[in-house]
Design brief:
heterodimer, A: mainly alpha, two-stranded antiparallel sheet, 14 helices, 2 strands, globular, B: mainly alpha, two-stranded antiparallel ribbon
Chain lengths: ~300, ~375
């Protein structure tokens, strides 16, 4: 997924005027979309520093339009002056935050383990379970992708009640694993296909078992693909709302559910809402910026041959 | 998506891998024991729950443990009786057992719930009522409306595709700071749709003070209420959803553009084609397979659309923005009506499966005909 500089666009341009015009257009469009992408983020972050008046008057620029204040963060118990005091809101927030981390990391890890194994088996061996061959099994896994959450939601609500998994993190982890498993298998299949079989054949000749060859030879090579699949799965699980809203109530509530339930009796406290939204968004925004390469690798797996 | 596996290697079973009879017997014994154990737990539990016996567990959870143990025994049986072939099967078994347990059983159970009248908040419990839910569904104008909305939402994917293609072309042009723009353009995909719908939908697009409303007033829209009349509300939902998901298609299309062979474009240029001609005659046809994959994946994600609508409009005004998922969600939340909600969901599943199957067939033919 390396980015090459493609310079054919330039060579197509004939006159200098046309060149300048095309540059202006390209950068204009790029900057416009940058604005579209970043302004909502800017709005969210600045709103968390505004008081009620600044919000309702639509003030935009800190220090010019309004005097920033830790108001939103104080209400979460996360501002510099309130961080060392006890705060029930902060405890609540950290609880939800930990729930989100545990469910998304747990589900992604579980999906990576069983998904990689399945993908490896499907790319290397021929299976035949009754009348199901490799193609059918692959299709079975990938077809789970079209299954909308709503189909499983109500049966799971009833079943989870019966097995006492309602409002538990384990319950959410199992469902999220199911949700991201097709994507993981899709990415890992592509990854394993790109690893030459000769490597394992050599390992087998050297006396390693099938599993030994997989764990000691193939796994290290496939690690970037696993990271990519893991991060993509993380993003999907972290942002998941539908199952979390239906299947959790007090114990296992995740961040998106907490964000969605922030309507007070006197309407919405925009500053605290904004602070909470910022805190919910921040981890993934940071991961997205730092590990963008892997994300792109995950998303483009299998689409370009 | 049912692509052929291109480099699958069939390693023939090793004939020298002979398995002693004792080991085989052990494998079979293990499997038999686990199967009996699993069945025993289920039977005990059924008897207990139907109050025919007093021995049993409070919840059905032990059945899950028994199933996991049974799965482990199944794996051991494979290895013990089939040797190396069994070890190969071991790669596939965990994912297979997991998916079957999590999908097949709940779906079948769902088809059963769909045929019952079951209100979780009432004490009467479930009552089998055959196809009543089905007839009720056919007469439900709100469900039909939600389905119609899904058609509109899916059609919006085409607009998203055009924008995503444009952005991919921009990123593929010779520009400075490409990495910066790529990261920024990708960012909306990372953000939680719920947080986004609050901060963008409810705050940024707020009627009185939201900057988007202010901007719309400056542009001459006198009454910029984004969510009060049905058509604008739908468009607002589409825009928000597009904002989060355009990067997804953009990245796939960008990868396609970067994988395109330079020689073809060079050849087109040498032949004197203008940029416009090059795009329509060369780039676009070559990008067709990637485009189709991106659009289909996007449609599949679109069919699950729920969280933005639930948090932003809860289906309003008057159910105008409802997607099927959000409608069923409210059906459950407001009326605890599990039976009817499940019937709606199952009908939706059938519609989706038919639609996506047709879409894949159609796309396959389409790509083949054009190329």
């Amino acid at each position: 997924m390396s980015v090459q500089t493609t310079d054919y666009t330039v060579s197509e341009i004939r006159s200098p005027a046309a060149f300048v015009a095309s540059r202006v257009f390209i950068y204009g469009a790029l900057l416009f979309w940058t604005f579209v992408c970043l302004f909502p983020l800017y709005w969210t972050i600045t709103t968390s520093f505004k008081s009620a008046v600044d919000v309702t008057q639509g003030h935009l620029i800190p220090f010019v339009d309004f005097q920033p204040d830790w108001k939103g963060w104080r209400s979460l118990g996360l501002s510099p002056d309130s961080i060392f005091e006890t705060s029930t809101v902060r405890d609540e927030f950290f609880k939800r935050f930990m729930n989100s981390i545990i469910t998304s990391v747990g589900a992604s890890a579980l999906a990576i383990v069983i998904g990689s194994l399945a993908a490896y088996g499907l790319t290397r061996y021929r299976y035949k379970f009754a009348w199901f061959k490799n193609e059918d099994i692959s299709f079975f896994f990938l077809s789970q992708l079209i299954l909308p959450p709503v189909v499983l939601a109500l049966p799971f609500l009833v079943l989870y009640r019966e097995v006492a998994l309602l409002d538990t993190r384990i319950g959410l982890i199992l469902l999220y694993t199911l949700m991201v498993l097709p994507i993981v298998i899709w990415i890992m299949r592509d990854q394993f296909n790109s690893i030459p079989v000769e490597l394992e054949e050599a390992a087998l000749v050297d006396g390693l078992s099938i599993w030994g060859a997989f764990l000691r030879i193939v796994m290290p090579i496939a690690l970037p693909g696993m990271v990519a699949a893991f991060i993509l799965a993380m993003v999907l699980c972290w942002n998941e709302y539908f199952f979390a809203a239906l299947l959790t109530s007090t114990d296992a509530k995740t961040i998106p559910v907490m964000v969605a339930s922030q309507t007070g009796s006197q309407g919405i406290n925009w500053w605290s809402m904004a602070a909470l939204a910022t805190a919910a968004i921040a981890p993934l925004a940071i991961i997205g910026i730092a590990l963008e390469r892997y994300l792109i690798m995950g998303m483009t797996a299998g689409s370009v041959k | 998506m049912a692509e052929q596996i291109s480099t699958a290697n069939a390693w023939s079973a090793n004939p020298a891998d002979l398995i002693p009879a004792g080991r085989k017997r052990l494998g079979w014994a293990l499997l038999a024991l686990a199967t009996v154990g699993l069945l025993a737990v289920i039977v005990v539990q059924i008897l207990y729950k139907t109050e025919m016996s007093t021995i049993g567990f409070d919840t059905w959870r032990p059945v899950i443990y028994a199933y996991v143990l049974w799965g482990a025994a199944l794996g051991a049986w494979q290895v013990l009786t089939r040797g190396e072939d069994g070890q190969r099967a071991l790669f596939l078994l965990p994912a297979l057992l997991f998916t079957i347990a999590m999908v097949i059983f709940p779906t079948l159970f769902g088809f059963y719930i769909a045929l019952t009248d079951w209100n979780l908040s009432s004490f009467t419990g479930r009552r089998f009522n055959g196809l009543d839910n089905f007839w009720q569904m056919l007469a439900d104008p709100y469900y039909r409306n939600a389905l119609f909305n899904m058609v509109l939402y899916v059609l919006a994917v085409l607009v998203e595709y055009v924008i995503a293609f444009g952005l991919a072309l921009l990123l593929n042009a010779q520009i400075r700071a490409r990495k910066f723009f790529r990261v920024v353009f990708l960012l909306p995909l990372m953000l939680s749709p719920v947080a986004v719908s609050w901060m963008v939908g409810k705050s940024l697009m707020e009627y009185r003070f939201g900057p988007a409303a202010t901007l719309a007033r400056h542009l001459g829209w006198e009454n910029p209420a984004f969510f009060s009349d049905p058509i604008t509300a739908r468009i607002s939902i589409m825009m928000l959803d597009a904002w989060t998901f355009i990067p997804f298609m953009m990245i796939m299309l960008l990868a396609g553009l970067q994988a395109m062979s330079r020689e073809v474009l060079e050849a087109a240029r040498v032949d004197g084609a203008t940029a416009w001609q090059t795009f329509w005659q060369v780039t676009f046809p070559l990008m067709l397979p990637v485009s189709v994959t991106a659009v289909i994946l996007r449609i599949i994600f679109k069919l699950k659309l729920a969280d933005i609508i639930i948090t932003l409009t809860s289906g309003g005004p008057g159910g105008a923005t409802d997607s099927v998922s959000s409608f069923i969600y409210r059906e459950y939340r407001d009326r605890s009506n599990v039976g009817y909600g499940t019937m709606l969901a199952m009908a939706y599943l059938v519609i989706i499966v038919v639609f996506v199957t047709w879409l894949l067939k159609f796309a396959n033919r389409f790509v083949r005909n054009v190329n």
